[in-house]
Automatic annotation (TrEMBL):
Entries under Pfam families matching the protein: VanZ (PF04892)
Name of the protein described by the UniProt record: VanZ family protein
Domain of life: Bacteria
Classification via InterPro entries: VanZ-like
Record organism: Modicisalibacter luteus
Domain VanZ-like stretches: 45-118
Length: 133
């Protein structure tokens, strides 16, 4: 896949995950509870969503915008998590949560680590391919 197409896809995936996180994080409490009840899952959605979405976003962000590097990626991810948590102060039925922010941070770190491991694997494959040819 050409690099421009890959960047467009990864950017779109990041945006999708960000929208899911922002919408879920800013839903009023009663609506969020009704949706969670309707889903009928055997676990609480918010903690899992915080962690999984931040893993995915932190994996996609440096892949889409490589110039960010580690500090830029983690800063953006932590700011996103903090802003959504702080905005919950003014949303009916919601309160900011340090635990959610910690899950965001852990997910962002793990997602970026996954990105680094993938890049390292790709670089090793490229080096071994070049040695063979």
């Amino acid at each position: 896949m050409p690099i421009n197409h890959r960047l467009a896809w990864v950017s779109a995936v990041f945006l999708l995950f960000f929208l899911l996180f922002a919408i879920g994080g800013l839903l009023p409490g009663p609506l969020r509870n009704a949706i969670e009840s309707w889903l009928g899952l055997p676990f609480s959605v918010p903690p899992v969503a915080h962690f999984v979405l931040f893993v995915a976003m932190a994996f996609c962000l440096p892949w889409a915008w490589p110039r960010l590097q580690m500090i830029g990626t983690l800063t953006i991810m932590l700011v996103l998590g903090a802003v959504v948590e702080l905005l919950q102060e003014w949303i009916p039925g919601r309160t900011p949560s340090l635990n959610d922010f910690l899950l965001d941070s852990l997910g962002a770190g793990l997602g970026f680590l996954g990105y680094l491991l993938l890049i390292k694997k790709q670089q090793k494959a490229a080096v071994s391919f070049n040695k063979e040819n």
